[in-house]
Amino acid sequence: MSNEITVSESKAGFLSPVVSVKDALMAYQAKKDLIDGIMHKDVDYGVIPGTNKPTLLKAGAEKATSFFGLSTRFEDAGIVEDWTGEAHGGEPFFYYRRTCSLFRGDLFIASADGSCNSWEKKYRYRSSSRTCPTCGKETIIKGKAEYGGGWLCFSKKGGCGAKFDEDDTSITGQPTGSVKNEDIADIVNTILKMADKRALVAATLIATGMSEYFTQDMEDYVTGEVVTVHAEKVAMTYLQAIEFKSPKGLRFGDMDRVKLQYVIDHGSSDQVEAAKIVMEQDYNVEIVEESAPQS
Ligand SMILES: [Zn+2]
Question: Is 184 helix (H, G, I), strand (E, B) or coil?
Fold first, then answer.
């Protein structure tokens, strides 16, 4: 790209700086002022337990772009919209990959991709609690043994107070835990917005050099430049990947993270590929290629 800063190599092993030390220190101080003075924890950035770097959130990225005088431009970089699921085993599938480019005036500064798809765990499934057959609310709890056991529609959670026997199939017959989200079409716009958000955060980190302070949003792991999986590839191969089997006959789709990691470390190239896809899709684990930019 023509507007990118170019560096020249004067001698092998020595890269000339393009800015003076003074300018670099001023830029460093500006970033520090921005972060210390304007950014607020839990609004502009968050700290996820177990991580050592805070993650930059959308509000923080917007503050940073405005602080540095950057304007944003979003473009489609890949779309899969399968409303009926005809190409995805009957299950609707939506995938958006977006490019966020940052400009100062007409000068291109940086760009990055972000993607999101409806098979990410948090969109594909919803957690289901037992529903009260009387009032229809998800307020059923296990009754305490000292109060007679059974099931109770808990009034403190907004329920009606109805009681049910221990073995009442109208309660015990209900699916609980993770169930498929049947209303995926309702959140298509959310998925698109999430792709934009990931692209914006990634581009902002690149443009401002703030990746030494912040990382990407860990929960909303960014595909973008760092992840190998291509739009159509996600769509085509997830279903195949989960049907791979170990020598003992265990489906990849039924494996836990430890087993998948074992396959990634020891499997044949096909198995590794499949295990990575299952790992990424089912466990939101980002598989970074060796060519990924280091931050
Ligand atoms: Zn009730």
Answer: helix
Neighbours of 138 (CB within 10 A): 16
* Nearest to 210, CA basis, from 105, 110, 295: 295
- Model pTM greater than 0.90? no
What separation in Å is there between the alpha carbon of 151 and the centre of ligand 1? 10
Contact at 8 Å (CB) between 254 and 274? no
**Alpha-carbon dihedral 189, 190, 194, 200, rounded to 10 degrees:** 60
Q: 155 alpha carbon to ligand 1 midpoint, in Å? A: 8
All structural domains of the chain with their residue ranges = 130-175, 227-295
Dihedral angle over CA of 98, 102, 108, 114, nearest 10: -30
End-to-end Cα separation, the chain, in angstroms: 21
CA of 180 to the centre of ligand 1 (A): 24
**pLDDT per position as a tens digit, 132-174:** 999 998 888 888 887 788 999 988 878 899 999 999 999 988 8
